[in-house]
Write a structure and sequence with these properties.
Strand content: under 5%
Largest sheet: none
Mean pLDDT: 87
Helix content: 55-70%
Radius of gyration: 23 Å
Number of strands: 0
Length: 128
């Protein structure tokens, strides 16, 4: 069978194809009926991974984790997001002191901050 993206809709379609009631699915998966209902009505983002896994398994489905980007790409994304937040703080502080920083300077500072975050401690990169 071809892989498909796991979603509340794919779980619900499978449940219906099997002719399984939500009550039976809850019993079979060991997940409470209110949680099964919430998962199938509101989406899998509203429940724990272990509950999604248990419901999928009860429906004869397998949950697979797929890498969507390289480690370096994820680190760069985090470094850019963190650098952006730092620059927003710098901009806000500078504006309060009436010493606003111009756009090209902010871009250069952001680029330098990304480089520093990427070349520094990984713990620092991932800390909040």
């Amino acid at each position: 069978m071809a892989p498909q993206n796991l979603s509340a809709q794919s779980l619900e379609r499978r449940r219906k194809r099997l002719g399984m009631s939500r009550t039976a699915l809850a019993r079979r998966s060991g997940v409470s009926l209110p949680t099964v209902n919430r998962m199938l009505n509101d989406g899998i983002g509203n429940v724990t991974f272990s509950n999604v896994w248990a419901v999928a398994a009860a429906l004869g489905m397998e949950v697979t984790v797929v890498t969507t980007c390289s480690s370096l790409q994820l680190q760069e994304q985090e470094a850019r997001a963190k650098a952006k937040k730092i620059m927003e703080l710098v901009q806000g502080t500078s504006a309060l002191e009436t010493q606003a920083v111009d756009g090209p300077t902010v871009q250069e500072m952001t680029k330098k901050t990304v480089y520093e975050l990427m070349s520094g401690s990984k713990q620092r990169l991932w800390s909040t």
